[in-house]
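User: I'm curious whether this sequence folds into something compact or stays loose and floppy. Could you predict its structure so I can see for myself?
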Amino acid sequence: MREVEELRPLTAGRLLRIRRETERAGWDEAERGLRCNAQVLAESCFTGGEVVFADGEAVLEALSVEEMETLLRRLCGEGHAPREKQPAAVNPSFDAARFETLRGERA
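Assistant: Here's the prediction. I'll summarize afterward.
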């Protein structure tokens, strides 16, 4: 797989346009999904500030489906801790022992 240093998320509007463009092409559902994902990656993958792939076709030629899935997961922020497990912010004065004591008093 080519080196991808940075993944830049696309706007919701651009994602919708990519989806509409692939639907208009008339491919079957499986091919439409692959081509849509390939175009998203072509526009999201950067190395040294430059795009890694010229277009969706270049992504399809260079990457396996598994490699595409890995990059798409990274683009969505997955691959590390699940989103619901990540705290929004850390409170430096949080007292875990006190929290457990209070939680036990409620039960």
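Summary: The two ends are 52 Å apart (CA to CA). The beta strands are 6-7, 45-47, 50-51.
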